[in-house]
Design brief:
The mean pLDDT is about 95. The two termini are about 40 Å apart. The protein is of the alpha/beta class. The chain binds adenosine monophosphate and magnesium ion.
Length: about 425
């Protein structure tokens, strides 16, 4: 294996910047994505870019809410269980029948749910209140006018704005868009992210490991995190700690994506390939006052926004959570970009470094949060078992058991 390493082991440089300042920097780096028309089903989780005004009413026509018989209510006013009223049934009206078949007095049309109410009928008798006849029907119960009729426009009136710009499109909203006849929707397109992990020790999952090697996991974690918020992620799985290999891998994709996210190779050691490849090329490397995830880099390389995350899996994941997730959501038009925040009592004592904001993995139940695992940034299993992050402020070095802490609800483990 060949190492090309320019960086000496570097001493910590200037003062770290705050989590909030770095988040603002990353948010400013990633441009809003353009508005595009996309097939409705491809808009899950995306943000609607314009108000949707319905061109049709829903329902579009008066229709039956039941399988049964369309009648004039006065014709069956005297019907009872023991003295049924018998009516001839001239036609069937299944759902989808598009011609108009008026109802003559003293008759009943067999009608199915969703089928148009014939002119002349003012109610539907449900099949359960009849003998189900095909040529003639015995109606065993009276119906009030309007019974089991779904009125045109009851749900939506043509000209209504049914969804507002800024709405996050989930299944109910997409169903409604389809119901008003839209095959495509104007949305902020998904952000396109290239994920590139670095490290000569990394091996693709599915292959055997030698001593000294580990499975590469950050690209899966980061790409999945991008997809979870509606973005598109391409994984360039990983490159060794080799500057030429790094540049070659990135060069292929420069024009295709909105953002390059790397992991690894930005710390204070030697063989820091990302630092070596991007220093002096429009990317600034610095420290953020946070644990885990202090060493960071960001900037623009050959016109492409780049965010370089540290390699430890929890550092990478937390950096995504704190900096990239809100920035990518904002770029895709979301207005709610922060996780829900609650206050809870810590079930255990926590120790945190001074002058750095610490995030600890936890599980929350009611108003008690239980830390999961230690602060080590390699402890991925405890991250996967967590459903929240405990935020220990910069000026707090000890959280006593029972102290109230801020907690970010990140979802996940159940
Ligand atoms: P680095 O930031 O490159 O110094 O890496 C810090 C630690 O994270 C080392 O123990 C690496 O082996 C590990 N690491 C770096 N990248 C990855 C990755 N893509 N998947 C899993 N572990 C990684
Ligand atoms: Mg590395």
């Amino acid at each position: 294996m060949r190492y090309v390493a320019n960086s000496p082991i570097s001493a910590p440089n200037s003062a770290p910047i705050s989590v909030a300042d770095y988040r603002a920097r990353i948010t400013a780096l990633i441009r809003p994505t353009p508005v595009t028309l996309r097939p409705t089903l491809d808009c899950v989780g995306l943000v609607l870019a314009e108000d949707l005004v319905s061109g049709v009413s829903l329902p579009p026509f008066d229709n039956s809410a039941m399988d049964g018989y369309a009648v004039r209510s006065e014709d069956v006013a005297d019907a009872e269980r023991l003295a049924a009223v018998a009516l001839p049934v001239p036609v069937d009206i299944p759902a989808g029948r598009t011609d108009i078949v008026p109802l003559l007095p003293g008759t009943a049309h067999r009608i199915m749910t969703g089928a148009p109410i014939p002119p002349g009928a003012d109610a539907v008798v449900k099949v359960e209140d009849t003998d189900g006849g095909v040529q003639r029907v015995a109606v065993r119960a009276p119906v009030a006018p309007g019974t089991h009729i779904r009125r045109a426009g009851e749900d939506v009136t043509a000209g209504d704005a049914v969804l507002r710009a800024g709405t996050v499109l989930g299944s109910p909203q997409l169903g409604l868009a389809a119901a008003i006849g839209l095959a495509e929707l104007p949305v902020h397109r998904p952000v396109r992210v290239l994920v590139l992990s670095t490290g000569s020790e990394l091996v693709a999952p599915g292959n055997p490991l030698l001593h000294g090697q580990i499975y590469e996991s950050n690209s899966v974690l980061l790409a999945a995190a991008v997809r979870e918020i509606g973005g598109e992620a391409t994984v360039l799985r990983f490159v060794p700690d080799d500057v030429a290999a790094f540049h070659a891998a990135v060069a292929e994709h420069l024009g295709d994506v909105d953002l390059l996210v790397t992991s690894g190779g930005v710390s204070a050691g030697a063989y820091e390939v990302v630092k070596d490849a991007l220093t002096g090329q429009g990317v600034e490397f610095l420290r953020v006052a946070v644990q885990p995830g202090g060493p960071q880099g960001s900037g623009t390389f050959k016109g492409l926004p780049v965010v370089t995350l540290p390699g430890n899996p929890v550092s990478s994941a937390l950096s995504f959570e704190l900096f990239l997730r809100p920035a990518l959501l904002a770029a895709m038009g979301h207005t709610v970009i922060q996780r829900p925040r609650v206050r809870a009592r810590s079930a255990a004592e926590l120790r945190s470094p001074s002058a750095r904001r610490q995030y600890r993995r936890g599980r929350i139940e009611g108003d008690v949060v239980t830390p999961v695992g230690g602060p080590g940034s390699h402890l991925l299993a405890s991250f996967a078992a967590s459903d929240c992050l405990i935020e220990v402020p910069e000026d707090t070095e000890v959280v006593a058991e029972g102290d109230v802490v801020d907690v970010l609800l990140i979802g996940g483990a159940t």
